[in-house]
Amino acid sequence: MDARFPQIADHLLLIERELRVQGWWDETPPSAEQLASQEPFSVDTLDFSQWLQWIFLPRMKQILEQDLPLPNASGILAMAEMVYANDAHKSRGIRVLLHQFDELITQAG
């Protein structure tokens, strides 16, 4: 098991909590077609917060639960900066968490 797994697991919970606090958590999942997007961050079918909730968090959970290799890099903060450019104050918490996640991923395992 990668030594970062416990810290990443905790961090994923913080990301989920922030999505809920900001009201960016959906109770109803997107359609199978929306989830099947091949575009980066599913930009053609999902809002960024939906991508975080329905694609990113489940994939990361699967990686941790199945002891799979972590990605070598993460560029989630760059996408968040673009998405939340007009809402910098409200999005500060999620951007900080995503920055920290990016840093965790780039650390040697």
**C-alpha Rg (nearest Å):** 14 Å
Distance linking N and C termini:
9 Å
Total helices: the number is: 5
SS strand fraction: under 5%
CATH class: Mainly Alpha
> Which consecutive residue ranges, at least 5 long each, have pLDDT under 50?
none
Kindly describe this structure.
By secondary structure, the chain is an all-alpha fold. The chain has a single domain, classed as YqcC-like (de novo design (two linked rop proteins), Up-down Bundle). Helices cover 57% and strands 0% of the residues. The protein is built from five helices and no strands. The chain has helices spanning 5-21, 32-35, 48-65, 76-83, 92-106. Helix 4 runs antiparallel to helix 5 (92-106). The longest helix has 18 residues, at 48-65. The radius of gyration is 14 Å and the shape is globular. One of its GO terms (biological process) is single-species biofilm formation. It comes from Pseudomonas eucalypticola. This is YqcC family protein. Pfam families: DUF446. Residues 7-104 form the YqcC-like domain.
Describe the SSE topology.
Layout (H helix, E strand, L loop, with lengths): L4 H17 L10 H4 L12 H18 L10 H8 L8 H15 L3
Helix pairs in contact: 1-3, 1-5, 4-5
Protein name: YqcC family protein
GO biological process, one term: single-species biofilm formation
Pfam families: DUF446
